[in-house]
Protein backbone atom coordinates (compact mmCIF):
# COMPACT_ATOMS: atom_id res chain seq x y z
CA UNK A 1 0.00 0.00 0.00
CA UNK A 2 1.11 3.53 -0.68
CA UNK A 3 0.55 6.31 1.85
CA UNK A 4 -1.68 8.09 -0.70
CA UNK A 5 -4.09 5.16 -0.36
CA UNK A 6 -4.46 6.00 3.34
CA UNK A 7 -6.09 9.34 2.60
CA UNK A 8 -3.68 11.91 4.02
CA UNK A 9 -0.59 12.81 5.96
CA UNK A 10 0.01 13.27 9.70
CA UNK A 11 1.41 16.07 11.86
CA UNK A 12 2.58 16.40 15.47
CA UNK A 13 3.36 19.29 17.80
CA UNK A 14 4.88 19.84 21.26
CA UNK A 15 4.51 23.14 23.12
CA UNK A 16 5.17 24.49 26.60
CA UNK A 17 2.24 26.44 28.04
CA UNK A 18 1.88 28.33 31.30
CA UNK A 19 -0.24 26.56 33.90
CA UNK A 20 -2.33 28.03 36.74
CA UNK A 21 0.36 27.17 39.31
CA UNK A 22 3.06 29.52 38.00
CA UNK A 23 4.84 26.78 36.10
CA UNK A 24 4.64 25.27 32.68
CA UNK A 25 3.21 22.09 31.23
CA UNK A 26 4.21 20.30 28.05
CA UNK A 27 1.26 19.84 25.71
CA UNK A 28 1.55 17.34 22.88
CA UNK A 29 -0.80 16.87 19.99
CA UNK A 30 -1.01 14.70 16.96
CA UNK A 31 -3.43 14.32 14.10
CA UNK A 32 -3.85 11.13 12.18
CA UNK A 33 -4.74 12.43 8.74
CA UNK A 34 -5.77 9.00 7.62
CA UNK A 35 -9.06 7.64 6.41
CA UNK A 36 -9.62 5.58 9.54
CA UNK A 37 -13.27 4.73 9.04
CA UNK A 38 -12.24 1.32 7.71
CA UNK A 39 -9.21 0.80 9.97
CA UNK A 40 -8.99 -0.80 13.38
CA UNK A 41 -7.52 1.31 16.18
CA UNK A 42 -6.36 -0.09 19.53
CA UNK A 43 -5.30 1.41 22.83
CA UNK A 44 -2.39 -0.70 24.03
CA UNK A 45 -1.06 -0.71 27.59
CA UNK A 46 2.13 -2.48 28.57
CA UNK A 47 3.44 -3.39 32.01
CA UNK A 48 6.57 -5.47 31.51
CA UNK A 49 8.38 -6.36 34.77
CA UNK A 50 11.38 -4.07 35.44
CA UNK A 51 10.37 -1.75 32.56
CA UNK A 52 8.41 1.50 32.46
CA UNK A 53 4.66 1.14 31.91
CA UNK A 54 3.34 2.54 28.63
CA UNK A 55 0.10 3.37 26.87
CA UNK A 56 -0.15 3.93 23.15
CA UNK A 57 -2.27 3.90 20.02
CA UNK A 58 -1.90 1.26 17.32
CA UNK A 59 -3.67 1.17 13.98
CA UNK A 60 -4.17 -1.75 11.66
CA UNK A 61 -3.23 0.32 8.60
CA UNK A 62 0.29 -1.11 8.65
CA UNK A 63 1.05 -3.55 5.85
CA UNK A 64 2.02 -6.22 8.38
CA UNK A 65 -1.15 -5.92 10.47
CA UNK A 66 -4.53 -7.48 9.62
CA UNK A 67 -7.07 -5.18 8.03
CA UNK A 68 -10.25 -4.12 9.76
CA UNK A 69 -12.49 -6.69 8.07
CA UNK A 70 -10.24 -9.58 9.05
CA UNK A 71 -9.99 -8.33 12.63
CA UNK A 72 -13.75 -7.80 12.78
CA UNK A 73 -14.58 -11.17 11.20
CA UNK A 74 -11.98 -13.29 12.97
CA UNK A 75 -11.25 -11.29 16.10
CA UNK A 76 -7.71 -10.53 17.18
CA UNK A 77 -5.39 -13.46 16.82
CA UNK A 78 -2.97 -14.28 19.61
CA UNK A 79 -0.05 -13.45 17.34
CA UNK A 80 -1.48 -10.03 16.49
CA UNK A 81 -2.06 -9.28 20.18
CA UNK A 82 1.64 -10.02 20.82
CA UNK A 83 2.65 -7.79 17.91
CA UNK A 84 0.39 -4.80 18.74
CA UNK A 85 2.71 -3.22 21.34
CA UNK A 86 5.34 -2.93 18.62
CA UNK A 87 3.02 -1.30 16.07
CA UNK A 88 2.26 1.86 18.02
CA UNK A 89 2.21 5.20 16.23
CA UNK A 90 2.05 7.11 19.52
CA UNK A 91 3.29 6.03 22.94
CA UNK A 92 3.54 7.62 26.41
CA UNK A 93 5.33 6.15 29.42
CA UNK A 94 4.68 6.50 33.14
CA UNK A 95 7.32 9.27 33.43
CA UNK A 96 5.55 11.40 30.81
CA UNK A 97 7.99 10.75 27.96
CA UNK A 98 5.99 10.85 24.72
CA UNK A 99 7.04 9.63 21.30
CA UNK A 100 5.33 9.43 17.94
CA UNK A 101 6.32 8.27 14.49
CA UNK A 102 5.61 10.13 11.28
CA UNK A 103 6.38 8.97 7.79
CA UNK A 104 6.25 10.35 4.30
CA UNK A 105 6.53 8.69 0.96
CA UNK A 106 10.00 7.62 -0.08
CA UNK A 107 12.03 9.85 -2.29
CA UNK A 108 13.83 7.72 -4.83
CA UNK A 109 16.85 8.00 -7.05
CA UNK A 110 16.26 7.75 -10.85
CA UNK A 111 16.92 3.98 -10.70
CA UNK A 112 14.06 3.58 -8.19
CA UNK A 113 16.13 2.91 -5.08
CA UNK A 114 15.04 4.84 -1.97
CA UNK A 115 17.16 7.84 -0.97
CA UNK A 116 16.40 7.65 2.72
CA UNK A 117 15.74 4.01 3.60
CA UNK A 118 18.16 2.95 6.31
CA UNK A 119 19.92 -0.40 6.08
CA UNK A 120 21.52 0.34 9.44
CA UNK A 121 22.47 3.28 11.64
CA UNK A 122 25.09 1.69 13.94
CA UNK A 123 26.66 -1.41 12.37
CA UNK A 124 27.89 -3.88 14.97
CA UNK A 125 25.19 -2.95 17.52
CA UNK A 126 21.96 -4.82 18.29
CA UNK A 127 19.88 -4.68 15.08
CA UNK A 128 16.24 -3.61 15.44
CA UNK A 129 13.42 -2.63 13.09
CA UNK A 130 12.42 1.06 12.98
CA UNK A 131 9.01 0.49 14.63
CA UNK A 132 10.57 -1.32 17.60
CA UNK A 133 12.66 1.65 18.71
CA UNK A 134 9.67 3.48 20.18
CA UNK A 135 8.83 0.65 22.53
CA UNK A 136 12.49 0.18 23.53
CA UNK A 137 12.87 3.89 24.34
CA UNK A 138 9.56 4.21 26.17
CA UNK A 139 10.24 1.20 28.39
CA UNK A 140 13.76 2.36 29.26
CA UNK A 141 14.01 6.18 29.23
CA UNK A 142 12.52 9.07 31.22
CA UNK A 143 13.80 12.11 29.29
CA UNK A 144 14.53 13.18 25.74
CA UNK A 145 18.26 13.37 26.55
CA UNK A 146 18.26 9.76 27.82
CA UNK A 147 16.38 8.64 24.70
CA UNK A 148 18.83 10.29 22.31
CA UNK A 149 21.77 8.71 24.13
CA UNK A 150 19.95 5.35 24.23
CA UNK A 151 19.68 5.30 20.41
CA UNK A 152 23.45 4.68 20.20
CA UNK A 153 22.85 1.15 21.53
CA UNK A 154 21.08 -0.02 18.37
CA UNK A 155 21.51 -0.54 14.65
CA UNK A 156 18.12 0.70 13.40
CA UNK A 157 16.99 -0.30 9.93
CA UNK A 158 14.00 0.38 7.66
CA UNK A 159 12.72 -1.65 4.71
CA UNK A 160 14.61 -1.30 1.44
CA UNK A 161 11.65 -1.93 -0.89
CA UNK A 162 11.07 1.28 -2.92
CA UNK A 163 7.30 0.86 -2.67
CA UNK A 164 7.13 0.43 1.11
CA UNK A 165 10.24 2.29 2.27
CA UNK A 166 9.30 5.50 4.02
CA UNK A 167 11.31 8.34 5.42
CA UNK A 168 10.69 7.91 9.15
CA UNK A 169 10.80 10.69 11.66
CA UNK A 170 10.04 10.71 15.36
CA UNK A 171 8.95 13.49 17.65
CA UNK A 172 9.83 12.94 21.28
CA UNK A 173 8.95 15.20 24.23
CA UNK A 174 9.22 15.06 28.02
CA UNK A 175 7.40 16.93 30.82
CA UNK A 176 10.35 19.31 31.36
CA UNK A 177 9.71 20.90 27.96
CA UNK A 178 12.62 19.25 26.16
CA UNK A 179 11.65 17.91 22.76
CA UNK A 180 13.40 16.70 19.64
CA UNK A 181 12.77 15.48 16.13
CA UNK A 182 14.73 12.36 15.25
CA UNK A 183 15.10 11.24 11.64
CA UNK A 184 16.76 8.23 10.05
CA UNK A 185 18.38 9.40 6.81
CA UNK A 186 21.11 7.75 4.76
CA UNK A 187 21.90 5.23 7.52
CA UNK A 188 22.41 7.90 10.17
CA UNK A 189 20.29 9.27 12.99
Describe what this molecule looks like in 3D.
The chain has four helices and ten strands; from the N terminus they run E-E-E-E-H-H-E-E-E-H-H-E-E-E. The strands form three sheets. A six-stranded antiparallel β-sheet has the order 3-4-5-6-9-10, with helices on one face. Strands 1-2 form a two-stranded antiparallel sheet. A two-stranded parallel sheet has the order 7-8. The protein has 189 residues and is α+β, with helices and mostly antiparallel strands.
Which oligomeric state applies? single chain
The percent of residues in helical segments reads: 10-25%
Strand line-up of the largest beta sheet: 3-4-5-6-9-10
Q: Give start-end ranges of low-pLDDT stretches.
A: 1-7, 63-69
Termini separation: 26 Å
Global structural class? alpha+beta
Beta percentage is 25-35%
Main sheet characteristics: 6 strands, antiparallel
SSE arrangement, N to C: EEEEHHEEEHHEEE
Shape estimate? globular
Specify Rg, calculated over alpha carbons.
17 Å
Total helical segments: 4
Annotation, overall tally of beta strands: 10
What's the average pLDDT? 76
SSE layout and pairings?
Elements: E1 11-18, E2 24-31, E3 41-46, E4 54-59, H1 68-74, H2 78-83, E5 88-93, E6 98-104, E7 126-129, H3 132-140, H4 144-150, E8 154-157, E9 167-173, E10 179-183
Parallel strand pairs: 7-8
Antiparallel strand pairs: 1-2, 3-4, 4-5, 5-6, 6-9, 9-10
Features:
189 residues, alpha+beta, six-stranded antiparallel beta sheet, two-stranded antiparallel sheet
